[in-house]
Amino acid sequence: MLGPERIRLSRHDGSGGLSATVRDITFLGNNIHVATATAAGEALSVRLPFGHEAMAGLSPGDRVHLAFGPGAAHVFC
């Protein structure tokens, strides 16, 4: 499981991670929920703090880069 608050979103490609397309943006008080989809159609949710630099001018349909650290994922058996 990968929590939406553990995914880093950037407007610029970086090493590692994957590209995605913004599907929807929802403002939730101090947080912003960004619904994205990968090229394979997999949905990934990202939660950013209000005012995050990547949000400036971000709109549905924009391409973004998603990444997360090795300790961000949790496996439940």
TrEMBL record:
<dbReference type="GO" id="GO:0043190">
    <property type="term" value="C:ATP-binding cassette (ABC) transporter complex"/>
</dbReference>
<dbReference type="InterPro" id="IPR008995">
    <property type="entry name" value="Mo/tungstate-bd_C_term_dom"/>
</dbReference>
<dbReference type="Pfam" id="PF08402">
    <property type="entry name" value="TOBE_2"/>
</dbReference>
<dbReference type="GO" id="GO:0005524">
    <property type="term" value="F:ATP binding"/>
</dbReference>
<dbReference type="GO" id="GO:0022857">
    <property type="term" value="F:transmembrane transporter activity"/>
</dbReference>
<feature type="domain" description="Transport-associated OB type 2">
    <location>
        <begin position="4"/>
        <end position="76"/>
    </location>
</feature>
<dbReference type="InterPro" id="IPR013611">
    <property type="entry name" value="Transp-assoc_OB_typ2"/>
</dbReference>
<protein>
    <submittedName>
        <fullName>ABC transporter substrate-binding domain-containing protein</fullName>
    </submittedName>
</protein>
<keyword id="KW-0614">Plasmid</keyword>
